[in-house]
Amino acid sequence: MSIIARWLRMSVFMKVFLGFLIVALPLYGTSLSTTWKAGSTISSETQSSTHSKLQFFLEYLKDELQNVNQMLVALNNDPDLPSLMLMQDTKLTYEVLQLSNQIQSKMNIVYYSSDYITDVFLLLPRSGKQLSVNKGGLAQIEDSKRGFLNRHIGKFSMMDRFIDNNSITYTIAITHNDETEVSYLLGVEISQSKILESLKKYDADDKYHTFLVDNASKRYVGREYLTNADKVIYETLKESPELKKIEWNGVRYMVQSSKDQFFTVISYVEEGQVLGSVNRIRNSFWILAAVSFAFLFVYSLLIFQQIHKPLNRLVRTMKAVEKGDVNVYIPNLKEDEFGYVYRQFNRMVGQLRNLIEEVLENKIRMQQAQLKQLQSQINPHFLFNCFYIGYRMAKSGEMENVAKLCKYLGDYFRFVTQRSEQDVLLEEEIKYTSTYLEIQLLRFSNKLSYQAEMEEGLGQTVVPGLIIQPLVENALLHGIEKVNRPGQIIICIRRRGAYISVEVKDNGPGMEEEALHQLTATLNQSVNDTNHCGLWNVHWRLKHTFGEGSGLRIRNLEEGGLCVSFEVPASSMKFGEIA
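RE: above sequence
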């Protein structure tokens, strides 16, 4: 369907509303584009600024560490160190103390040269002594510092760098005996926490999460515990260092990283914290868009209320009439054009209602006439079969059975002639159906048996008279007579929810599926010219009495034979009458 065709099929209200919306959409699009571009610009500028700060910090840290290394090298070249090393085996004399004080004064100069330095120390392994700024004077070598000595054994380079949980230590060692023994070791300890404190100065708002990683050992500097976000972002940047935004656990982060030969510094922040003002502008835009959308809706509704509302009322009423409700009426409160249309419509519906009532009355009279005709067809059909059975027994000399047959016929037709009503109780219907079966027992002798089972409390249910006997007769003619074994007919009456089910079963040959479908189609025809006259009569009497949804159901039984059944709505019945 083309766009023009769809437009023509729309209601007047939708056309007006969409017209206003088409005009407003370019304004919405321009505002949204501007807001989105502003957010992208702020994000880009923020990332650029953060990257510059991180790069500046790394340059500053690199210069500080180089300065510390140069001071350490200069201290190592001081002539007092070899002198003190040669005097390791000497007892503590005035000359040794004086030399130690001179070296410690120079160590203090190194100590105060950088805010990052927490200690400067000298280890003399042969004498087991150490000289430290923090400890002051000669003392025994601490266990925590002996590991530095072992790191230089067998190592060609004089300098080494070691990172633990609290500090970064730079050491210079002089070895002898083919580098298997350390003569002395000079070291500088740098505080990791002070490095991080200086790094935090670059984030005045304390929005960013920043951490430092040593490139050689892959250890986190100054951070004993890292958050899950820290670890995820670091691992992600190792695989894709060019990423500027990372999403984790439903949160988007803006990330920046910078790297030199020793360290990698990583900084990240939740995007919402940086773009908070932009997000507020975007939210305001959506609120404004929603308000304006509602305004357009209300404005369109107000403009066309005088046209759309009465037109819609007329359309709804016409649809109700289309579905069969002819009792509708449109109140006429106006004297305009719609008032005239309403009056003409009400007049038309009134005429239609009168016409339907006349047609319905004629249909009911025709159904009642047809119902009487259907019932009148049953009695002659049954009487004909009974006389035929009596004739056969009289010919064969079964006079006692002829007498029984006449008695049964008298009982049966006494019931038929003394009841002028169309409907009977189920217990009476079963009684006279049993009388019919007794007549058939005279005919079939030992070949036929029957059972009539009815659930307690259902005998007072009202059904059309002679509704079960034709089903039994059909079972005899088309089931029992066609087999050479003892036949059985079972009448079963049970309550099933809101219905009372009546089933007539036989153990005959049943029916082929094609023949069964053809019989079902024949029952639903309004005219019958087949030999299933009894079933067809019962089927249509049920439909006339209980409505289109009722009627006979025919199916083959799994154990063999045929089952003909129907259901009576128990909720629509009362004693003595059908509601």
